[in-house]
Amino acid sequence: MTHSPDSGSSLPAGYRTAPFAEDCAPRKLLRLFSAKWVTMILHALHLSGGGSRPGQLLRNLPGLSKKMMTQTLRDLEAKGLVSRHVMAEAPPVVEYRLTALGQCLIEPLEQLYGWGVEHAHILDRID
């Protein structure tokens, strides 16, 4: 059975054949999602209603160190995907929230996670 590059693809023609430019959209998305905790933090923020305190994120994501969480949140904040809110309380309370831009990534992320759940048996074979 021969598989043509464009059969069943909804991608524009420029993304169905190589070479793929370094600044193309799929590579930008893969660079963003390839950082170890990015997708899990975005997903956890989404599931908690769009925002969470750092301690709650740590409890929701076993294996995530405080240092890595802080680094990833700073990076996501610099990219405009999350915002940091400090509430004037004693002691100060910090909450991270998805921005509108960060919220735009939830749909493809949920689709990817959904595929992973549905095809866990495949992932188990290659893990």
Just give the CATH class: Mainly Alpha
- Provide the structure class: mainly alpha
Question: What CATH architecture do you see?
Answer: Orthogonal Bundle
State the share of residues found in helices, binned by percent: 40-55%
Q: Fill in the CATH topology.
A: Arc Repressor Mutant, subunit A
CATH-defined superfamily = Winged helix-like DNA-binding domain superfamily/Winged helix DNA-binding domain
- Principal-axes shape call: globular
Report the radius of gyration as a whole number of Å.
Answer: 18 Å
What pattern of helices and strands is seen along the backbone? HHEHHEEHHH
Describe the structure.
This protein has about 130 residues and is mainly α. It has one domain (about 20-125): Orthogonal Bundle (Arc Repressor Mutant, subunit A). It has 7 helices and 3 strands; from the N terminus they run H-H-E-H-H-E-E-H-H-H. The chain has helices spanning about 25-35, 40-45, 55-60, 65-80, 100-105, 105-120, 120-125, and strands at about 50, 80-85, 95-100. A 3-stranded antiparallel sheet has the order 1-3-2. The chain is globular and about 55 Å long. The two termini are about 30 Å apart.
List keywords for this structure.
single chain, 127 residues, mainly alpha, Arc Repressor Mutant, subunit A, three-stranded antiparallel beta sheet, 7 helices, 3 strands, 51% helix, 11% strand, globular
Brief summary:
It is built from seven helices and three strands, in the order ααβααββααα. It is mainly alpha-helical and 127 residues long.
Describe the secondary-structure layout.
Elements: H1 25-34, H2 38-47, E1 51-52, H3 54-60, H4 66-78, E2 82-87, E3 93-98, H5 100-104, H6 106-118, H7 120-126
Antiparallel strand pairs: 1-3, 2-3
